[in-house]
Amino acid sequence: MATALVTGTSTGIGLATAVTLARAGHFVFATMRNPDGGGELSEIIETEDLPVTLVTLDVDDDASVVGAIKRVLEEKGHIDVLVNNAGVGGGGAVEEVPLADFRQIMETNFFGALRCMQAVLPSMRQRGEGCIVNVSSIAGRIAAAPQGPYASSKWALEALSECLAQEVKPFNIRVALVEPGIIATPIFTKAKPLRPDSPYPQSRRIRALFQEALKNPVSPYVVAELIREIVENGSWQLRYPVGADASALLQTRAGLTDEEWIARGAVDDDEWVAMIKRDRGLDIKLSS
């Protein structure tokens, strides 16, 4: 069984991944910025007597990452699997999102994953084995307004992962990108209020789309089960779309030119609502 370190395990995909790997018999170091906020995970661990240890780790902080991974290596001697799940959401029109917000999203979603990878890679390389699973998003493959800040961070993570996969394959280290579609996690409850005076309609539209899609929620345990399979199956496949809508969205985007895709994102409200109904079967009600 593997020793796995999973980031961002207080809720959502991270929590589900820690639980799923532990239920499969793997030893899990479940990390989060504040373990006192991991009540749900702690309860599951205690109830099921799972092999999980909570560790404080803030992916935005160099010293925190180095210290946490040093602790794990001292305790277990190795890390077989790193699951970079910690992340934050964030959208809005490019004109309207403060630079500080862009920087914070990139700090967590991109540099946070990079910090953890750089910290575990020396020991994986020296042992001649390892598995790194980076939780990206379908937004890492498809750029749709108003997801400029979030999509940029995930596109960067995708590019980094593809480069890394080439570098470390000779050392028997696998790299995988998991690309969820709309998954029922608390990330959607943390969205900032819409700007009532915005001239850009896309934020209002995507908020309504998420609300409608989440009426038929996809559990984060669907993603966690895929991560378990990646850890255990030894595959060298790089990308794994997951969720009811992920593959369909990729197929739609692949069938359009760049210009056609841009035109779709620029239509008026009525045409957009009709398009979503036609393509995704969702009845969107837009507020005025």
SSE diagram, text form:
Layout: E1 3-6, H1 12-23, E2 27-32, H2 39-48, E3 52-56, H3 62-76, E4 81-84, H4 99-127, E5 130-135, H5 148-168, E6 173-180, H6 202-213, H7 220-233, E7 239-242, H8 246-254, H9 258-265, H10 269-280
Parallel strand pairs: 1-2, 1-4, 2-3, 4-5, 5-6, 6-7
Helix pairs in contact: 1-7, 3-4, 4-5
Please provide a written account of the structure.
By secondary structure, the chain is an alpha/beta fold. The chain has ten helices and seven strands. Helix 1 (12-23) links the parallel strand 1 (3-6) and strand 2. Helix 1 crosses helix 7 (220-233), helix 3 (62-76) packs parallel to helix 4 (99-127) and helix 4 (99-127) packs parallel to helix 5 (148-168). The longest helix is centred in the middle third of the chain and has 29 residues, at 99-127. It starts with a strand and ends in an 8-residue tail after the last helix.
Compact overview of the structure:
It is built from ten helices and seven strands.
Keywords, separated by commas or semicolons:
288 residues; alpha/beta; seven-stranded parallel sheet; 10 helices; 49% helix; globular
Q: How many separate helices? A: 10
Taking pLDDT < 50 over at least 5 consecutive residues as the criterion, the unreliable ranges are none
CATH topology (fold) name: Rossmann fold
Give the neighbour order of strands across the main sheet.
Answer: 3-2-1-4-5-6-7
Structural class: alpha/beta
Superfamily (CATH H level) name: NAD(P)-binding Rossmann-like Domain
